[in-house]
Design brief:
About 75% of the residues lie in helices and about 0% in strands. By secondary structure, the protein is mostly helical. The longest helix is centred in the C-terminal third of the chain and has 31 residues. It is globular, with a radius of gyration of 22 Å.
Length: about 230
């Protein structure tokens, strides 16, 4: 009996890595990687198209949920949510952009560890609330941001949400990755409790928090130095 394993479908992973390195459109990269994987697995074009359609039908409710969230956030922004967040943080005397993002990072990690992953996110929190608050805290101390500084600060806001969610949700016992590891270990003769696996994610989450908090502090220091040099010039 031939037990040869076909490793060619792993070319799809290489396609994803290459696409992201080339900064391609994420949706296009994933679609191309799926086509590469299907072709490497020996599927005909119609079978690949059927798999893509089946995946779309199974996740169509997610698109509807995101659309409803965007509609709600757009309505709140139209009624001054961003402006209110900007003005509110400027009323806090000692608030800094780096300190604000560090507090959000901690809150995001803790809430994700409790299974409250939807309490943050780019469309519902980062864009309408966190970004204007970070910009308000910065401009209160250092003056107006230029285009490059604004783009970098917004990127750090988005990265803070991503890191907090990624390393926080691994501490939740019902998270899909923890359940997957539990099932895999059990199938291979290692009966480990999901709570045990989740607890082993704590050191990683702590180091992720410390490293990114240091990056945020260094980022604000660099921006402040650049602002001071512009003032001298």
């Amino acid at each position: 009996m031939d037990q040869t394993v076909n490793l060619w479908p792993l070319l799809g992973i290489a396609a994803v890595i290459l696409g992201f390195l080339l900064r391609g459109n994420p949706l296009l990269v994933v679609c191309c990687a799926g086509i590469v994987t299907g072709a490497a697995a020996g599927l005909d074009p119609l079978a690949i198209l059927a798999k893509v359609g089946d995946g779309f039908m199974k996740t169509r409710s997610l698109s509807a949920a995101l659309l409803l969230a965007l509609l709600a956030v757009g309505l709140a922004e139209r009624h001054g949510l961003r402006e209110r967040a900007y003005r509110w943080v400027q009323d806090i005397g000692d608030a800094t952009a780096g300190g604000l993002l560090i507090v959000y990072l901690l809150a995001r990690q803790l809430s994700a560890a409790l299974g409250l992953s939807a309490q943050g996110g780019h469309p519902q929190v980062v864009r309408p609330i966190l970004v204007p608050m970070a910009e308000g805290a910065w401009e209160k101390l250092h003056g107006k941001l230029n285009a490059a500084q604004r783009a970098r600060l917004r990127a750090m806001c988005a990265a803070t949400d991503n890191i907090g969610l990624f390393f926080g949700e691994n501490l939740f016992v019902a998270f899909s990755a923890v359940i997957l590891m539990h099932a895999f270990m059990r199938e291979n003769g290692h009966a480990l409790d999901p709570l045990y696996l989740a607890l082993w994610g704590i050191p990683t989450a702590m180091f992720a928090f410390l490293i990114h908090a240091g990056r945020l502090a260094w980022h604000e220091y660099r921006l402040s130095r650049a602002a001071q040099q512009e003032e001298r010039e």
